[in-house]
Amino acid sequence: MLDRIQIMTLLGLPGFGRATVGSIIKEVSIQPSNIGELHDLLEGLKGVVPRIKIPNMAQLEKSSDLAKLTYERCEKLGIKILSPSDKQFPFRLKHIPDQPVILYVKGNIECLNAELSVAIIGTREPSAYGEKCGELFAKRFAEQGLVVVSGLAKGIDTTGHQGCLIAKGSTVAVLAQGLDTGVYPAENRPLANRILDEGGCWISEYSLGVRGRPNFFVERDRLQAGLSAGVVVIETDIKGGTMHTVGYCLEQRKPLGCLNHPEKFLIGNNKARGNQQLINEGKAVPLFTPEELDGYISKME
Question: What pLDDT does residue 43 have?
Answer without folding.
Answer: 94
